[in-house]
Every structure is written in C-alpha cells, then in structure tokens.
Design brief:
314 residues, alpha/beta, Rossmann fold, Alpha-Beta Plaits, 2 domains, 6-stranded mixed sheet, 10 helices, elongated
C-alpha cells in the first residue's frame, strides 16, 4: 500500500518463519496513522514482539516491506531507525552508569549532536531529573521503567513502541504510565503499544489491532469496535421466582438464573431498543412481574475472548 502523508508506519505482506519452521507472523498488513495511540492486543506468543522487532530492525522479516515515514526499513535503515524509539519489556542497562550518562549515550548512538536542554526536558517530564546523577542500580523498579522511556526518547523519535509497558507493575504506576503516554502523544509522538491487558487498550488506544497466531485478525477504531461487537444485557430481577421461562417468551432467548430470580436478555447494541419494549409487553402479558432491571455492556475483554475463540473454531 502506498505511503500517504498521514501514515507514519506502513507494513505490507510481512511474514516471519524461523529456521525451525515456526511461523511467527503471516502476511501482516498494517497502516499506523500519524499521532495516534495504537494498541496491538493479543495473547502471549501471538507475534506482538516479533512484529516490533522487525520494524525496529532487530529481526529480519522473511517477506514483506516496512516503511517508516516513507523510509524503507532495509534500503534506508539508518533514516528509518532514527525515527523509532523502542521501550522494551526488560531493562538491559549497565547498572553502574548514571541516568544522565545512559540517556546521553543513547542519543549519541543515533548520531544526534549533544542537546543537554532536550535531555533535561525528557528527564524532567519523566520525574527523573533529580535522579540524573544516580547509578541505575539505585533506582526503584518504577524509576527504571521511566528510564527505559527516557532512553527511547533520547534521539527525538516520531514513533514510539512500548512493548508490554505495564507488565508486572503496580496499579499506581500503570496509571502514571498511561498519563505519560498521553502526554507524549500530545507532543506529536505516534505510539504503538503491545499489551495483553484489555483494560490498557480500552483506556489508552484510539485504534486497536488484534493479533493471534501471527495474523492480524482485526483493526478497528476503539469506539467502533465496542459499538459493533459489544453486546448489551438487560437483567430483570423478578418479583417471584420462575421454575422455567414461560413458552410465550421463548422467542427472546432469555436466560433464567439458577435461582429462578433473574432473567437475562442479550441484545445487539447496534440495533434500537424496540426489542426491549416488546419484551416488557410480553412479560406483562405472561404475568411475569419484575422488581428491578439493569443493563450492562460487554467490555473489550468479552469482545476479545469471543474474537479469538471464533477464529480458533473456524
């Protein structure tokens, strides 16, 4: 697919088969829009890290092309790679170096001239400035995670990969990381994050791609995905327990709880609510009274689990 001005990353026909015969990626096509937060969602082993590793030049693809802001990742490696920042899952930094030395060195690796003012801003934004002279080994886990981001930002990339950014961190730090990612996006950085935490994708992303067994099975705007695939449920608390769903209500696909005190009606969130009005009339006609009712919309987790299950059953 042709590179367009609003596309910062263009991936076409990307496959990776290892010498063992294992196929990690299969014909992946993906266009990432400039300035978006894109969540690549999938179970462990789905191919998320392989995909990032190819884009970042760490692993070679078997087939396909990758272009970063128009630069081919193989033919124009240096230009393409200089536009990318990668925040890996694991910290592999020299523990005895200082924070300042580490980010300065990272910037130099990309051939960027020294810019202390920029690095100071990065460290301040990440609440690391007061730790700039500390050895990395003295930092807390959360600070080390921030340092990984500072290193990835040291050469002023336009595209930032966050590989499982909050795996194994506590809830408070996760919230801080999310705020930080939004702030980065506000400065014009495009962000791709891989995660298997559904709530992370739901909270953060503008668009979501679902990868499973090396294939992208869906790419959708988050709101549209929720709208299209989200089911709503209406739960009725009955005034009197029922032994079974009355035959007159059999067309509604109602589920009766084990205690006989709740009826659940599942309907498509896309359609209008006329089905509910008809159901309530039918309940009345059948002499079924209810004390209370509530509606729930399925979460992205429900959607994801169903998507993956449906694909595996196919």
């Amino acid at each position: 697919m042709a590179h367009t001005p609003d596309t910062i990353l263009s991936i076409a026909g990307l496959s990776k088969t290892y010498a063992s015969g294992f196929s990690a990626l299969r014909q992946v096509d993906l266009q990432i829009r400039r300035g978006e937060i894109f969540a690549l969602l999938g179970p462990n082993g789905a191919g998320k890290t392989t995909l990032i590793s190819i884009v970042c030049g760490i692993v070679n693809a078997s087939t396909g092309t990758v272009r970063v802001d128009g630069h081919d990742i193989q033919a124009d490696y240096r230009a393409a790679r200089s536009l990318i920042g990668l925040v890996p899952q694991e910290l592999t930094t020299e523990a005895f170096e200082t924070v300042w030395a580490t980010v300065s060195f990272s910037r130099g690796l990309f051939g960027k001239p020294a810019n202390p003012a920029y690095l100071e801003k990065v460290l301040r934004d990440l609440s690391l400035w007061d730790k700039k002279d500390n050895a990395i080994r003295t930092l807390s886990g959360g600070m080390k995670r921030r340092l990984l981001i500072a290193k990835a930002l040291s050469h002023e990339p336009r595209l930032l990969f966050l590989d499982e950014p909050t795996a194994g961190v506590d809830v408070t730090l996760r919230q801080e990381m999310w705020q930080l990612v939004r702030a980065l996006r506000d400065t014009g950085v495009t962000i791709i994050l891989t995660t298997h935490y559904i709530d992370e994708a739901e909270e953060m992303a503008d668009r979501i791609g679902v990868i499973n067994r090396g294939e992208i099975i869906l790419v959708e705007d988050k709101a549209e995905l929720m709208r299209k695939l989200g089911k709503k449920q209406l739960t009725l608390q009955l005034a009197q327990p029922l032994a079974a769903v009355p035959p007159a209500l059999s067309g509604y696909g109602l589920a009766l709880s084990a205690t006989g005190t709740e009826l659940t009606y599942t309907y498509d969130a896309q359609r209008d609510h006329s089905g509910i009005a008809q159901l309530l009339q039918a309940l009345d006609a059948a002499g079924v009274a209810f004390r209370d009712l509530q509606t729930d919309q399925s979460s992205l987790e429900d959607i994801f689990v169903n998507l993956v299950r449906d694909r595996e059953a196919a």
